[in-house]
Each structure stands twice: as C-alpha cells, then as structure tokens.
Design goal:
mainly alpha, 57 residues, 33% helix
Amino acid sequence: MNYILGLFKPIILRNSRYNQQLGKAACIIEVGATGNTLDESITSMKYLAKVLNSIIK
C-alpha cells in the first residue's frame, strides 16, 4: 500500500455510529492506533492542529 509521506496508514470505513449523529456537524477524528507509537501520534496531531487552525481562522 502506498502511504503518503509515511503519515497515513490504511483507513477502515464502517457504518458504525459513535453518537456523532446527536449534534450538528459532528466529526470524530482518531489519531493513532495499536500499530502506532506515541511519537507518531503526537507528530500527526501537530500536522492536524496546523490544518484545523488555518481552517478555523
């Protein structure tokens, strides 16, 4: 599988609901999994925070 700069791993899409239907525009963002190290998760959050910050401004 082709990973984007080593940042993303395969994504599993499911039809499960995790209470996001209870609010308007709710979104669940999961960072890290059992196959990731804490350092990988922290690095991913830094990139995600920059993107979200640029969108929210």
